[in-house]
Amino acid sequence: MALIVQKYGGSSVADADSIKRVAKRIAEAKRAGDDVVVVVSAMGDTTDELIDLAQQITPLPPQREMDILLTAGERISMSLLAMAISNLGVEAQSFTGQQAGVITDSVHGKARIIDVTPSRIQQAVDAGAVAIVAGFQGVTQHTNDVTTLGRGGSDTTAVALAAALQADVCEIYTDVDGVFTADPRIVPSARKIDRITYDEMLEMAASGAKVLVLRCVEYARRYGVPVHVRSSFSTHPGTLVTDAATEEGAPMEQPIIAGVAHDRSEAKITIVDVPDVPGKAARIFEVVAGSGVNLDMIVQNVSVASTGRTDISFTLPATDGAAATAALTRHQPDIGFTSLQYDDTIGKLSLIGAGMKSHPGVSARLFAALSDAGINIEMISTSEIRISVVTRADQLDDAVRAVHTAFDLDSADEQAVVYGGTGR
Ligand code: ADP
Ligand code: ASP
Ligand code: MG
């Protein structure tokens, strides 16, 4: 008998019929003899709709209240799912993040899990019930304030619970058949990946492949939780995310390129005419960090000899654009730049593959593919197993398709199926 943690994303529980369909699947797993703990997301685009609603009340809602509001989405789906499972004659009980023992730090909107103490969940499982846990939420250690884990955070809840309960596997059920070589919504010829390493999946997630959220992959790698990404709409085997060794101890075969990821959620800030003297970059990034913003790519131009000034550009999540711009503008006099440009019409493409570190020519092939497709590259950054480029947002889809084809990733046979979801 195994203990399985299953997570169902919003598109898998979008309406009453979907909830009943998922309930059947859970009841089958339970009847097959396994212990089952389920993590559930808010129905469909509920989280986005709640954010829109708050925006209609105030443009800058207090973050504490925002978190209480957003956690309501997962409470709706968890209770409905528990009812649907009970209807099928299998006992089920739902629990909030707090009841499930998900303890976080106090950073509202993107809290980090610091501990999981799932004794209530263990009791429910020991008593023979299916435990349903609201994803994406926790509670602060000292003040008991409700927090959320950031967009897509139900994946993290699932892996964290799987680690705490020492589950045999964490199954992430979504609206595609697994992790593909590119987003199937953009590249229908993308291929499903049967196995991927934590390292490659980390880079894919960090680069925008939202099928798994970054923190969930970090957590899974740290605690060695095997993750199986699959569709709740089919019974096809999905993608297994594990470390490089297979069960037999033999190294996993590593293709040069695992996939192409894209990200439309970033913006670019260019700080114009920064005095090119020691300490200015440090000051700029201190100011940005002080506003709680995580940067991504940074580019500094060669300074203009006649003026001794230079431009510095960096990318950041567009949702942090207002905070970073305001902080930099406040410090304009002491940094000494002349102006600041904000551009949220950029896209980022990333090519990921553990094999690229030992294969020369990957960048050259990437740049040639983009140039053949008439796509201009605005910024470039690399890691050992990733190359990322910034393009215009409206050219991003074409760029992804061109690069996918250039690296021979297109599938010869069936097209990837997208079963549900709105892609929002
Ligand atoms: P859920 O609601 O189940 O959490 P998400 O929308 O968060 O689902 O994630 C699933 C979506 O991730 C897919 O519908 C797909 O559009 C997108 N996606 C992006 N990159 C990939 C990829 N490489 N492989 C599979 N899906 C991807
Ligand atoms: N409902 C949350 C979101 O839409 C969490 C999740 O779905 O993982 O981001
Ligand atoms: Mg998700």
TrEMBL record:
One of its GO terms (molecular function) is ATP binding. It catalyses: L-aspartate + ATP = 4-phospho-L-aspartate + ADP. It holds the Pfam family ACT_9. ATP binds at residues 7-10, 174-175, 185, 210-211. Residues 269-345, 351-424 form the ACT domain. It comes from the Bacteria. One of its GO terms (biological process) is homoserine biosynthetic process. Keywords: Amino-acid biosynthesis, ATP-binding, Diaminopimelate biosynthesis, Kinase, Lysine biosynthesis, Nucleotide-binding, Transferase. Pathway: Amino-acid biosynthesis; L-methionine biosynthesis via de novo pathway; L-homoserine from L-aspartate: step 1/3; Amino-acid biosynthesis; L-threonine biosynthesis; L-threonine from L-aspartate: step 1/5; Amino-acid biosynthesis; L-lysine biosynthesis via DAP pathway; (S)-tetrahydrodipicolinate from L-aspartate: step 1/4. Substrate binds at residues 47, 74. Its EC number is 2.7.2.4. One of its GO terms (cellular component) is cytosol. Catalyzes the phosphorylation of the beta-carboxyl group of aspartic acid with ATP to yield 4-phospho-L-aspartate, which is involved in the branched biosynthetic pathway leading to the biosynthesis of amino acids lysine, threonine, isoleucine and methionine. Belongs to the aspartokinase family. This is Aspartokinase. It comes from Cellulomonas pakistanensis. The lineage of its organism: Bacteria, Bacillati, Actinomycetota, Actinomycetes, Micrococcales.
